[in-house]
Fold this protein.
Amino acid sequence: MSFTETLRDKAAFFVSKRNLHKVMNSEEIEDVLESIRNYSGRGFYDKIRLAQIEEELYNLCRRVIEHKPRIITEIGTWNGGTFYVWTRINPQAEKIISIDLPSGQFGGGYDEKRIKFFREFASDRKNTELYFIRGDSKSKETTDKLSAILQKDKIDFLYIDGDHTYEGIKKDFYIYLNFMSEKGLIGFHDINTYKEGYGVVKFWNEIKSRYRHEEFIREGSRVMGNGLIYLNS
Ligand SMILES: C[S@@+](CC[C@H](N)C(=O)[O-])C[C@H]1O[C@@H](n2cnc3c(N)ncnc32)[C@H](O)[C@@H]1O
């Protein structure tokens, strides 16, 4: 980055951070979703984009907050939409970990530069640490980094929204199951996406009956959808 670009980026970050803090004023799910719509930043930090049907995410969030997760991990963060939501609706969370593959399929990941903006999501929380692993969720390097962050902790809520191929989601599920707490929850996005190259529907239909589970799908929709399984059942 040239000197001028660096200065421009600093100015954009300064304004974006100030605007973010203006909208980040409630932990209620509705308000958090609204704050994403109201947020307007500058330059590299112009928006927090959410790849979700809000009604479906809202219903999933209601279950997540009942569970009061202390340790949260998200596979697939992209522009930070759901990462922002998990952070803001869970003030009790201690570790929130994002795993995303730079230039990954189904979104494209996030630039290293954006991490400082994502960190602002919890800048008012003394007890919450945010972690960012930019790598393939299925690689040993990534799971080693995750183990180092978790130490003795287990994941209470895992959200899988990364590699959407059948093989990809299946591997993610079985790898990350090893990191889950006994009473953990696992959320899946795109359980209702019927598009070429998307294998979540097939995998979800295979495993859901093994667990107590819920589906959050907007009536009449044939896209997106959130699924949730309860491991203690
Ligand atoms: C649909 S986006 C996530 C959207 C986000 N959860 C939201 O709703 O706001 C999917 C993300 O998964 C990431 N991804 C794809 N394959 C991955 C992999 N193997 N490991 C980690 N992340 C991956 C992509 O880079 C992309 O950023």
